[in-house]
Amino acid sequence: MIKKTFVLSVVVFAASSSFAAAPTAKEIIGSLTNLNASSAYPKNAIHINETQAIKLKSGEVAYLSGVEFKNAARNFWGGYILTRPKLKQSQILDYGGQANSFKIYEVQVNTKPTQLIQLSSAGSGQGSVSSQDELVYFDGWKAYVVATAESSSDPGRYSEQLGEEDCKTGHEIESALKVVPQANYIIRTTKTANACKGAKVTIKEDKLPFKIR
């Protein structure tokens, strides 16, 4: 296998003047090929929060939108839409739930520019909250995962003796991803503790090798 050298730098990304004009909300929603994946009611009751230009692995310019599905259930109000003007099509992505924000990082792979996108999924129920962040790049419609960070909060099992949840049986896990400039890996930092106030926090760092197919 050929070893690849990566140069990564975090950028605050805005649509370049070299890009075509960003599609309107009407164009994005009107060109959806999987409208049935919408959790909005009615299906096309989708609010576009923000849209940013991105580049796919091939160099094709596309647009990523963080969206809100109107009248959706609590765990399904947020999501993302990828729009490809070249194909005059857009698709709802398999991320979101209670999340719709994203971050864009720029990467050089053997001098070829690629972009990593951080997408999120989140949900909650019965006192527990969980979320997942993934760094991905797009090859066509497909999102290839580079790294994953999972976070969750659980107050613990109910104790009849205490008359409430036993925090010692619960947990607080906070995980975050960091793209390291001038390196070929991503750092994932995970903080873990039980659910008790002032509990000891354990911190673990993992270096995740960076790969592009």
Describe the structure.
This protein is mostly beta strands. Helices cover 3% and strands 53% of the residues. The protein has one helix at 25-30; strands at 6-10, 46-55, 61-69, 78-84, 89-92, 96-97, 103-109, 112-125, 128-139, 142-154, 158-159, 164-165, 171-179, 185-193, 202-209. The strands form three sheets. Strands 1, 6, 7, 8, 9, 10, 13, 14 and 15 form a nine-stranded mixed β-sheet that branches. It has a four-stranded antiparallel β-sheet with strand order 2-3-4-5. Strands 11-12 form a two-stranded antiparallel ribbon. The longest helix has 6 residues, at 25-30. The chain is flat, with a radius of gyration of 20 Å. Residues 1-19 have low confidence and may be disordered.
- Low-pLDDT runs of 5+ residues are 1-19
What is the CA-CA span between the terminal residues? 12 Å
Q: Average pLDDT across residues?
A: 88
**Topology, number of strands:** 15
Descriptive key words:
213 residues; mainly beta; 4-stranded antiparallel beta sheet; disordered N terminus
In short:
The protein is mainly β. It is 3% helix and 53% strand.
Spell out the blueprint of helices and strands.
Layout: E1 6-10, H1 25-30, E2 46-55, E3 61-69, E4 78-84, E5 89-92, E6 96-97, E7 103-109, E8 112-125, E9 128-139, E10 142-154, E11 158-159, E12 164-165, E13 171-179, E14 185-193, E15 202-209
Parallel strand pairs: 6-8
Antiparallel strand pairs: 1-7, 2-3, 3-4, 4-5, 7-8, 8-9, 9-10, 10-13, 11-12, 13-14, 14-15
